[in-house]
């Protein structure tokens, strides 16, 4: 989901046990948001990235609210974003591509053209019984977001790296407690 990629890339906090400042990443934003197999190089400025960062901070609020059990708040956040970005389905054709669906106004600014479909996607998730699959990593020193796509819906971590960190720490703690104090 693009919202996960954008929130985790553009919002500061903690990632995989380290502080993450989300700075100086215009190039990475450009690379991460290109459609797979695309030859286009988007003209993305630092100002565009900062505008998208503002949306990402607000999108993060949706994940946090769901994770905290505040679904009504999450829905209000998404409704506000949908209104502000003027998210609406529209068929379009550009860059020698066939007709395809967008969820933003054709003349929308670059950041808005990303935020509108992300808000739409979150609205779809919040509007069905699987909304609880939005989450925030429970590993220490990590606050990255995720969408749980596991069969049983029991995912707690943003990545295998965080899951492994937690399991290794628990193993080391068990080893220390089973050997007891030395003396």
Helix content: 40-55%
Discrete helix count = 6
CATH class: Mainly Alpha
Examine the coordinates and then state which fold CATH places here, giving the name of the CATH topology.
Jann2411-like fold
Going across the biggest sheet, name each strand in turn: 1-2
- Give the end-to-end Cα distance, rounded to a whole number of Å: 53 Å
Please trace the helix and strand order, writing H or E for each element: HEEHHHEEHEEH
Label the structural class. Answer: mainly alpha
Strand content: 5-15%
Global morphology = globular
Largest sheet composition: 2 strands, antiparallel
User: How much is the average pLDDT?
Assistant: 90
Any idea what the CATH architecture is? Answer: Orthogonal Bundle
Number of domains: 1
Number of strands: 6
Low-confidence stretches: none
Radius of gyration using CA atoms only: 19 Å
In CATH, what is the homologous superfamily? Jann2411-like domain
């Amino acid at each position: 989901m693009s919202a996960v990629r954008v929130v985790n890339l553009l919002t500061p906090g903690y990632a995989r046990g380290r502080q993450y400042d989300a700075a100086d990443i215009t190039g990475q934003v450009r690379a991460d948001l290109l459609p797979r197999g695309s030859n286009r190089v988007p003209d993305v400025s630092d100002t565009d990235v900062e505008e998208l960062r503002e949306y990402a901070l607000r999108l993060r609020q949706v994940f946090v609210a769901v994770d905290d059990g505040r679904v009504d708040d999450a829905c209000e956040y998404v409704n506000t974003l949908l209104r502000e970005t003027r998210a609406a389905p529209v068929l379009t054709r550009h860059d020698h591509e066939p007709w395809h669906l967008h969820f933003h106004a054709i003349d929308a600014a670059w950041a808005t053209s990303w935020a509108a479909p992300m808000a739409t996607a979150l609205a779809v998730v919040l509007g069905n019984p699987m909304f609880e699959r939005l989450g925030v990593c429970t590993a220490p020193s990590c606050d990255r977001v995720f969408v749980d796509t596991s069969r049983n819906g029991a995912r707690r971590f943003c990545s295998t790296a965080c899951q492994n960190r937690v399991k290794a720490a628990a193993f080391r703690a068990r080893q220390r407690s089973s050997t007891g104090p030395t003396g």
